[in-house]
Amino acid sequence: MDKYNEALKGYITDLNDETVKQSVEKILRDNLAKNSNTEVYKFLFGCIDLTTLKTTDSNTSVAAFTKRVNDFENEHPDMKNVAAICVYPNFAEIVRMNLEVSSVNIACVSAGFPSSQTFSEIKVAETSMAVADGADEIDIVINVGDFLSGEYEEMCDEIEEIKEACRTAHMKVILETGALKTASNIKKAAILSMYSGADFIKTSTGKLEPAATLEAAYVMCQAIKEYYEKTGRKVGFKPAGGIVTSEDAVKYYCIVSEILGKEWLTRDLFRIGASRLANNLLTSIAGKDIKFF
Ligand SMILES: O=C[C@H](O)COP(=O)(O)O
């Protein structure tokens, strides 16, 4: 048995999807109302990986996107800015050249995002180039095909190789939970990704339906918790894909807060990947319609 199957043996991976659903419902019943407040909205805004991953992105549009983040810093000195700007890897340099806010990181999707269907050499090279151009964080997708075929060693070896190419940049590993279908699969993929060096595990690319779900978040947070109890290493959590309203975001906050606790409620361990959430949180905070980004 290889080391990855060996690692999985230490965890409960036979999960019941209905039980997960009921656990999520209970968490929201007990916590959603009390966490729907300005303080939490502000915290969540500061955890956003502000994302543009469009076919139409260009140097000009990405530079303008970055300048809005600079403007936010100047116009809202009272508030924490977003945590990172997330772009395709060919735009790392443009963001680096235009970003004037040192607290905001540069995150790049990489390694054949969003399908992960390309040569391992290309994945490694793409990652190295993004890091050389200024990426502080690299978001990659697991090889879902390998995972579903039970080829864990292939999937994990490749993640480990990409992790080396990240050097000091943090690696977020996307499970693409919508393609994994069951809670058991999501738990296994989460554990394998963490054993392969993930600094964060992330739900979805936003390019496939269903994207992030609360049930996937619940299972992933449980996996992070159990992994921490066994290894002492804290892995971050990033729900992403289809998170649009302030209420959506607060629901993920409730899951993280209940399962992982306050220690994980920091932008070092909790992010939300989103292209349409920022203005809605600003609107909830201000109590009037805001279209800043
Ligand atoms: O990684 C982030 C996701 O691609 C964002 O998805 P979204 O456009 O549905 O917010």
TrEMBL record:
Pathway listed: Carbohydrate degradation; 2-deoxy-D-ribose 1-phosphate degradation; D-glyceraldehyde 3-phosphate and acetaldehyde from 2-deoxy-alpha-D-ribose 1-phosphate: step 2/2
Keyword Lyase among UniProt keywords = yes
Q: Which Gene3D superfamilies match?
A: Aldolase class I (3.20.20.70)
Q: Which UniProt keywords apply?
A: Lyase, Schiff base
InterPro entries xrefs:
Aldolase_TIM, DeoC, DeoC/FbaB/LacD_aldolase
Q: Which reaction does it catalyse?
A: 2-deoxy-D-ribose 5-phosphate = D-glyceraldehyde 3-phosphate + acetaldehyde
The UniProt entry, under SUPFAM superfamilies, shows:
Aldolase
Cross-referenced SMART domains, in alphabetical order?
Answer: DeoC
The top EC class, named as a word, is lyase
> In which family does this protein belong, per the annotation?
Belongs to the DeoC/FbaB aldolase family. DeoC type 2 subfamily.
From the Swiss-Prot or TrEMBL record, give the protein name: Deoxyribose-phosphate aldolase
Upper taxonomic lineage:
Bacteria, Pseudomonadati, Bacteroidota, Bacteroidia, Bacteroidales
Q: Which gene encodes it?
A: deoC
